[in-house]
UniProtKB/TrEMBL annotation:
The keyword Membrane applies. It comes from Allosphingosinicella deserti. GO terms for molecular function: DNA binding. The keyword Transmembrane applies. Pfam families: Trans_reg_C (PF00486). Residues 21-119 form the OmpR/PhoB-type domain. SMART domains: Trans_reg_C. Keywords: DNA-binding, Membrane, Transmembrane, Transmembrane helix. GO terms for biological process: phosphorelay signal transduction system; regulation of DNA-templated transcription. This is Transcriptional regulator.
Length: 290
């Protein structure tokens, strides 16, 4: 396998070469489709089934653009799925490889066409090979995230005191359930609590609804439920809103990048507000006919 080299532009590009039939070498990693895993020395990283099948397809078509439709046809057998299912799988593959969509070393997004596993690149002359060093997450990262969440809660709570609606005939009841921590990991309890406070504060800023907490019973209420889960080892927030008859009328989720959770929760609640028909200017929307 050829070593990593620095191109003339200063950008690092790693080789991608098939080592043997069935297995594919991607930088310092070897992908085994049969085992659904990446390995490098003694390190193993397990891939979810669809992520493994997608990476297997990219390896077979190395250097070629594989369209969104081709991935759906082979990995999902052409079934109708959510619009963000393929990007979520590609994000998981990149995370396992230590790749960055903005500066790809392995998997490139080709606008309006699809994705491509980059071919091996020959190093320019007179440039010494270098060894890729993957940065380890800083131990202070989670502390900074929690501090950001708490700061956001304080800001939203202050704004909510000015904009929260009083009970009125045009206000629809919205019951916000406590965030369910489904990670099974004690270290994410504080993150679940911070998400709970942030979601409640964001909901209280919505126009045209009256927010209630917990198990309060209200007729014709919309119920907002949230779960904190682990997706390939990363925390992800999943939200859904249900009408009084149990029908799901809205869903939202974060991308799985832990540092983006506060901003993505805010955007998700804005999406719920738009779905319910609230107006940004503050006027309550008319009650829907039943």
């Amino acid at each position: 396998m050829r070593s990593l080299a620095r191109a003339g532009s200063g950008r690092r590009i790693l080789p991608v070469a098939e080592t043997s039939e069935g297995d594919c070498t991607i930088g310092g990693w070897t992908f085994s489709p049969a085992a659904n895993e990446l390995w490098r020395g003694d390190e193993r990283r397990r891939l979810e089934h669809r992520a493994a099948r997608t990476l297997e397809l990219l390896c077979r078509r190395r250097g070629q653009v594989v369209s969104h439709e081709e991935i759906l046809a082979e990995v999902w057998s052409g079934r109708v799925i959510s619009a963000n299912s393929v990007p979520v799988v590609l994000r998981d593959i990149r995370k396992a490889l230590g790749d960055d969509a903005r500066e790809p070393r392995f998997i490139e997004t080709v606008a309006k066409r699809g994705y491509r596993l980059l071919p091996e690149v020959t190093a320019p002359e007179a440039v010494a090979p270098e060894t890729l060093v993957m940065s380890r997450p800083r131990p202070q990262r989670r502390k900074r995230l929690l501090a950001t969440l708490l700061a956001a809660v304080l800001i939203f709570a202050g704004l909510a005191s000015w904009f929260v609606l009083r009970p009125g005939p045009a206000a629809r009841p919205l019951v916000v359930k406590a965030v369910e921590d489904a990670t099974g990991a004690p270290r994410y309890r504080s993150l679940a609590r911070a998400c709970d406070e942030l979601i409640t504060a964001s909901a209280q800023r919505m126009r045209g609804v009256q927010v209630f907490r917990g198990a309060e019973d209200h007729s014709d209420a919309i119920t907002l439920r949230t779960r904190l889960i682990l997706w390939n080892g990363a925390p992800m927030v999943m939200m859904s809103a249900q009408a009084a008859d149990g029908a799901v009328i809205w869903t939202g989720m974060t991308s799985g990048v832990e540092s983006r959770i506060p901003a993505e929760i805010g955007r998700a609640i804005q999406g719920l507000e738009a779905k319910l028909g609230a107006r940004p200017g503050g006027a309550a929307f008319p009650r829907r006919r039943v």
